[in-house]
Design a protein that fits this description.
single chain; alpha/beta; Rossmann fold; seven-stranded parallel β-sheet; six-stranded parallel β-sheet; 13 strands; 34% helix; globular; disordered C terminus; binds adenosine monophosphate
């Protein structure tokens, strides 16, 4: 299939050729024609599948064919014209035709950058990001240009709606990008409020890793006879990413092993995920002292600092990014060859998003989790979620001393006879066989596990959806 066959206009086709896109990805093949036909869409696909173009290309195609906003005049121009006529300028809110809601600022910026790329030959169409953390006067200037497309995080958008700066009465297209994530982050009320402010006749496209549960319920409420598209590509099954677990005895063992693995010759750039902002800072400092060019990224940093760090990463000046889950989505840097889970994520779906930072643009990647012996059940949870087993690996000279969570299996070149001190044989799983008795006597089934480390409110012991998300 070609982009021409999808029915896109020639200005967009030229932009795609210039961007080096030769053919549509599977999600684009299905979503673009349906969206051009005006259908509402519910799409389950993940970052890396080409989903941004899947909703943005048909939207640009539609916007290019519609009348310019405000009879060709921006609110800014109208105010100037009023002044020229000697009249007192009247403030007019921005009236976008398309709104894309995203969970994070990083993803919003990424969507805006891609939109600029796809709309480079559509001079009239402008996309603007409205984000928390950005100064209000700067955002007022952007809104005064009355852009056709707004890409926004929900909280800040609500602020502008409530102060009358944005009017959605002319909105034609609404996109919820990574809707599952927005709900996880507790944005449900904001989303409902925003959706209620838009015309009922709009076209709605919802993209989400899953269309089940709470997301599915919301999706059904806000769409009309949607076309459901479910994409399972190699990229979102992460078949191009080699995953492994290394067991560590303690922090010092973890730090030594991380330093060693970061010196791997095949490593170009890496992201190291930590559970806390403080650890992200501390580890970045430590790695810098050890001679790596490392930088931290987390939700306590100002947006300007976050953007500068991401630019340095994209330019290759930062080799190791040490980040909280704020970086788990939206970072698209092809040279990231390795992702490390210094701490496992709280939720299995975050594991999938984290490891998706590597293996971009059709390349291969490595995802390595450094796991304490007590965290075996967390690994099991992730395996159940991804329906993939994560092999355990041991590096010579960095073997864990404890044998309780000894290697279950190995990758070629990793485990060697003798490395496996009293643990499972290659291919054998020491703790994850449902119901199998463990060496330590604790049941191996995740459901039944109530041993050390069990907490009633531990998300790994519950399938309840998450309400709020601490570190953005
Ligand atoms: P996304 O899933 O939207 O985050 O896109 C992932 C990456 O794939 C981005 O770097 C896009 O620029 C790139 N991309 C999207 N569609 C195509 C395509 N049809 N051909 C080549 N690259 C693409």
């Amino acid at each position: 299939m070609t982009f021409e066959a999808l029915g896109l206009n020639t200005s967009i086709l030229k932009a795609l050729t210039d961007a080096g896109y030769t053919k549509p990805t599977p999600v684009q093949e299905q979503a673009v024609p349906a969206a051009i036909a005006g259908k509402d869409l519910l799409v389950s696909s993940q970052t890396g599948s080409g989903k941004t173009a899947a909703f943005m290309l048909p939207s640009l195609h539609r916007l290019a064919a519609t009348e310019p906003t405000a009879a060709g005049r921006t609110p800014n121009q109208e105010m100037q014209a009023a002044r020229a006529r000697g009249e007192r300028p009247r403030f007019r809110p921005a009236q976008p035709k398309m709104l894309v809601l995203t969970p994070t600022r990083e993803l919003a910026l990424q969507v805006t950058t891609n939109t600029d790329k796809y709309s480079v030959n559509l001079r009239r169409i402008k996309a603007v990001s409205i984000l928390g953390g950005m100064p209000y006067p700067k955002q007022m200037q952007l809104l005064a240009k009355n852009p056709e497309i707004l890409v926004a995080t929900p909280g800040r958008l609500i602020d502008h709606m409530e102060s009358g700066k944005i009017d959605f009465s002319q909105l034609e297209i609404l996109v919820l990008d990574e809707a599952d994530r927005m709900l996880d982050m507790g944005f449900i009320d904001d989303i409902e409020k925003i959706v209620a402010a838009t015309p009922a006749g709009r076209q709605t496209m919802l993209f989400s890793a899953t269309l089940d549960g709470v997301v599915g319920n919301m999706a059904r409420r806000i769409t009309k006879e949607p076309q459901i598209i479910q994409i399972m590509t190699a990229a979102n099954k992460h078949e191009n990413i080699t995953q492994r677990v290394h067991f560590v005895d303690d922090l010092s063992h973890k730090n030594r092993l991380l330093d060693h693995l970061l010196r791997d010759e095949s490593l170009d750039q890496a992201v190291v995920f930590t559970a806390t902002k403080r650890d992200a800072d501390t580890i970045a400092d430590r790695l810098n002292i050890a001679g790596f060019s490392a930088a931290a990224l987390h939700g306590d940093m100002h947006q300007g600092a976050r953007n500068r760090t991401l630019d340095s990463l994209r330019r290759g000046q930062v080799k190791v990014l040490v980040a909280t889950d704020v970086a788990a989505r939206g970072i698209d840097v092809p040279n990231i060859t390795h992702v490390f889970n210094y701490d496992l994520p709280k939720f299995p779906e975050d594991y999938v998003h984290r490891i998706g930072r590597t293996g971009r643009a059709g390349r291969n990647g490595q995802a390595i989790s450094l796991v304490n012996h007590a965290e075996g059940m967390h690994v099991k949870r992730i395996e159940r979620f991804t329906k993939q087993m994560i092999p355990v690996n041991v590096v010579e000279g960095y073997e864990p001393k404890k044998t309780g969570a000894a290697p279950r299996s190995s990758r070629p070149g990793g485990w060697k006879p003798g490395d496996n001190r009293g643990g499972a044989k290659p291919g054998q799983r020491s703790f994850s066989k449902p119901g199998a008795p463990r060496r330590d006597g604790v049941s191996g089934s995740a459901e039944g596990y109530k041993g050390p480390g069990f907490k009633a409110n531990n998300p790994y012991n519950s399938d309840r959806p998450r309400r709020s998300y601490g570190d953005r």
